[in-house]
């Protein structure tokens, strides 16, 4: 979740509900680093109130949280491919990096995270029509989109 600076624990709890809980439900366990926002009493009480437990990775040893570190490395790799020269547009690229990551087959499961989460295959958007005298009308483009979505729903 892109944030300006480290969010305080109360803001972190709100972000958790807004961005994680609404899509995935309550996790049984959350493993985090030892940042102050994760060790704050408010955050610990919040996790207890929703029935989650917390695990902290070893200080100065981020490799303990290997899955998160691999996901972070992959996200950096995706963004590096597309970020502008000034490296100021990376936050805008996060949704695209997320789509790329969630639709790559992972060796540990043989499936994409999207398929695991939803039970469905990802349906990509068709290319937007080009602005030219021969481009398709919006109606034609919408019909193409419906046709593609229908193909994946069967």
TrEMBL record:
InterPro entries: Integrase_cat-core, Retrovirus_Pol_polyprotein, RNaseH-like_sf, RNaseH_sf. Residues 1-121 form the Integrase catalytic domain. One of its GO terms (molecular function) is nucleic acid binding. It comes from the Eukaryota. GO terms for biological process: DNA integration. This is Integrase catalytic domain-containing protein. It comes from Micrurus lemniscatus lemniscatus. The lineage of its organism: Eukaryota, Metazoa, Chordata, Craniata, Vertebrata.
